[in-house]
């Protein structure tokens, strides 16, 4: 317990950093994921091609490599941001590809007759998608989206290698101070467990209220 109690403020700072990365990256991932899913089922070929390219590239790129591309590449094009914003951008974009595929699979579970009926009533594609299809698709994709965001929370540990304050980075100063590395990582693991269980609890509530009955 001494490792935790003697360095409570350090652990709290790291935990807060991980929570901030997770929350902001999740919001970005959800927004981009739903947008790319809409692109992938759009009647416009160029939008479908863009959505497919987005998912293909990001799902097959290692997250660490994406971090290097964002942190080292974007400043060369004149975009200079704090490292935390770069980390949020990398995590959000990477995770959005997996959110996109989860949402697209949910869209495919909606009977095609639903969309055809909406179009026969004169609805446009955005109206059909937003009013008819996505609300039904969302009910079936709550569990996979929750699992994806839990993975995002754990992936945020990579940000510590790029000078971003987060939970895993706590081990560095504690190791230098001579604390037991085993107990240092035990309390780090507890911190990640708190974050992931919180996400799981939120999505359990969502699934209970909105999910498809099995």
UniProtKB/TrEMBL annotation:
UniProt keywords (A-Z) are:
Amino-acid transport, Cell membrane, Membrane, Transmembrane, Transmembrane helix, Transport
Task: Domain (ABC transmembrane type-1): give its ranges.
Answer: 15-203
What compartments host this protein? Cell membrane
A Pfam family the protein falls into: BPD_transp_1
How does the UniProt record describe the way this protein sits in the membrane?
Multi-pass membrane protein
Broad class of where this protein is predominantly found: membrane
Give me the segments passing through the membrane: 23-42, 54-74, 80-100, 149-171, 177-206
* Statement: the UniProt record of this protein carries the keyword Transport: yes
InterPro entries xref list? AA_ABC_transptr_permease_3TM (IPR010065), ArtM/GltK/GlnP/TcyL/YhdX-like (IPR043429), MetI-like (IPR000515), MetI-like_sf (IPR035906)
Entries under NCBIfam families matching the protein: HEQRo_perm_3TM
The family this protein is said to belong to:
Belongs to the binding-protein-dependent transport system permease family. HisMQ subfamily.
- What's the name of the protein? Amino acid ABC transporter permease
């Amino acid at each position: 317990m001494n490792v935790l109690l003697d360095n409570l403020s350090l652990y709290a700072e790291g935990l807060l950093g991980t929570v901030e990365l997770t929350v902001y990256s999740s919001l970005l991932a959800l927004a981009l994921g739903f947008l790319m899913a809409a692109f992938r089922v759009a009647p416009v070929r160029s939008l479908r091609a863009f959505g497919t390219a987005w998912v293909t590239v990001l799902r097959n790129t290692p997250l660490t490599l994406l971090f290097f591309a964002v942190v080292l590449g974007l400043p060369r094009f004149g975009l200079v941001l704090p490292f935390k914003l770069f980390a949020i951008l990398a995590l959000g974009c990477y995770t959005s590809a997996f959110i996109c595929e989860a949402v697209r699979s949910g869209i495919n579970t909606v009977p095609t007759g639903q969309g055809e009926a909406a179009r026969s009533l004169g609805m446009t594609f955005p109206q059909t998608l937003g009013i008819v299809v996505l609300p039904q698709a969302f009910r079936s994709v709550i569990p996979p989206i929750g699992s994806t965001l839990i993975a995002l929370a754990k992936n945020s540990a990579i940000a510590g290698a790029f000078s971003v304050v987060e939970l895993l980075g706590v081990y560095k100063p504690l190791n230098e101070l001579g604390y037991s590395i085993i107990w240092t990582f035990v309390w780090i693991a507890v911190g990640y467990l708190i974050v992931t269980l919180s996400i799981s609890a939120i999505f359990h509530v969502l699934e209970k209220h909105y999910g498809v009955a099995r």
